[in-house]
Structure formats: structure tokens, C-alpha cells
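HUMAN: You are asked to prepare a plain-text protein record giving the amino acid sequence and the C-alpha cells, both parts labelled.

ASSISTANT:
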Amino acid sequence: MFELKPIESESIPRALERAERYRLLNEPRLAESICLDVLAIDDDNQPALRCMLLALTDQFGHTHGPLKDQAKSLLPRLKIPYDRVYYAGIISERYARQQLHQGHPGAKYAAYEYLVDAMDLYAEAEPLAPDGNDDAILRHNTCVRMIEWHRLVAPPPDEHELPLE
């Protein structure tokens, strides 16, 4: 069997630059691999955790597996409260987009619910944001526009539910 080789701790900054480059080149699996190498020697590396989370969400809809759960499992490892909430919103927003691309029955309803969840998370992140960081607002506005562009609506109430007495 083959063995993984560890990288040197001095190479972490360069490795993370490469991971970001691979994400931009639409090669999220390669970015994920690099992040795993960084996390193998520095399991608390915040830029690697954020990049890994984004690389996993970049893969939504392109591969099978529990990617959403893997991405969510990284959230508690993020030290900054803003990051935990903001990236939770990113996961929901990107999963909503994946639902729209899948186009299965009920996909538009699922996408709507994930976008509303993302907007709630972005609203929670907004007051935690560092000065000059409007990313949560920008993401919220994108979610609103996606709902408008795709004419998404809330799912109808489940007709099989029994009324409360």
C-alpha cells in the first residue's frame, strides 16, 4: 500500500495558496487534499479549515457522499464565532444551489428552505462581523435574488398532517 508523506510546517502558507488556486481552477478535490495535508500537521489551522469547508461545498452536486455533513463537522473547529455562523450560512446557500441544479421533484421547495436558513444565519453573523466586512450582507442579498430569479416559494403545508385538536 502507498503511504502519505507529511509536509513541512514551513510550507503551510505556500500549500494554502495552492489550495486556493485549485479552488479557483474548479479543482476542489485537489484543494481538499492539500487542506488535509496541512491539517495533518496543524489540525487547528484556521485558513485550512475554512478552505477545506469551501472545497467540500464546491463539490456539492459533483460527487456523492456526505459532503454537507463533512462540511458542517468543521464548523465547531472554527474559533471565531462570526466564522462559525457565516460558514454555516455558506453551507446552506451552496446546498440550495445544488438542489436547484439537481432539479428533482420538490427541489425548488428544498432550495427555498435552505436559502431562508442561510439568510437567517447571515443575519446572525452580521453583528459579529469585523468592521468593514459586509460579506454576510452580500450573501444575504444573493439569497434574496436567487429566490426572486428562480421564483421560489415556501413548500405548501403537508396535506397529510393531522390537524391539532
Q: What stands out?
A: The helical segments are 12-24, 28-41, 46-58, 67-74, 81-102, 107-125, 135-149. The chain is about 65% helix and 0% strand. Residues 80-153 form a domain with the Methane Monooxygenase Hydroxylase; Chain G, domain 1 fold (CATH 1.20.58).
